[in-house]
Amino acid sequence: MLISETSHANTLLNIRGQTPLLCAIESGSTSTATLLMEQDHLSLTCKDNMGSSVFHYATEQCNDIVLSRAIALLKRLSSSASRITALQRLIERNANGKTPFVIAIEKGSLKCVKYILSSKWLHRSVGIEDFINADSIKTAIDKD
C-alpha cells in the first residue's frame, strides 16, 4: 500500500526522523526493509534525527541480511553523488559517536563485520582505514 501511494516512501518521516525503511529495520521486518530498499535505492542515503542511517540500523539490529543487501544496492545508485552520500553514511558517526562498523563490533555481530570487510567493491570505493581505526580496534578489544 505504502509503495503504491508514492514511489518515494522514504521521504515520509516520523517525529524521530525515521523513514519507513528505518522503522522496518528497527522492528525486525527484514522482508519489508529489503522491499523498501529495492523500490527506492535513494533510501540508502537517508538518516534519522540522530544521524543514524540504514547501515547503523542494520548493525544495531544485527541484521546481516539487510546490511548485505544495502551494501549490494550501493552499486545500483544511479548518480555518483548519491553513491558518495550512501558510502559516507556507511562510515560516518551517528549522534552517539558510533559508525556502523563499531556498532557491529559492539553487538558481536560477526556476520555484519564480515559483510563490511569482505565486499571487494566497497573497498575499491572506501579505504579500509575508514573501518579499521583506533575506535574500532579499541571497541574490539573492550568486547573481547
From TrEMBL:
Pfam families: Ank_2. SMART domains: ANK (SM00248). SUPFAM superfamilies: Ankyrin repeat. The lineage of its organism: Eukaryota, Metazoa, Spiralia, Gnathifera, Rotifera. It comes from Adineta steineri. This is Uncharacterized protein. InterPro entries: Ankyrin_rpt (IPR002110), Ankyrin_rpt-contain_sf (IPR036770). It comes from the Eukaryota.
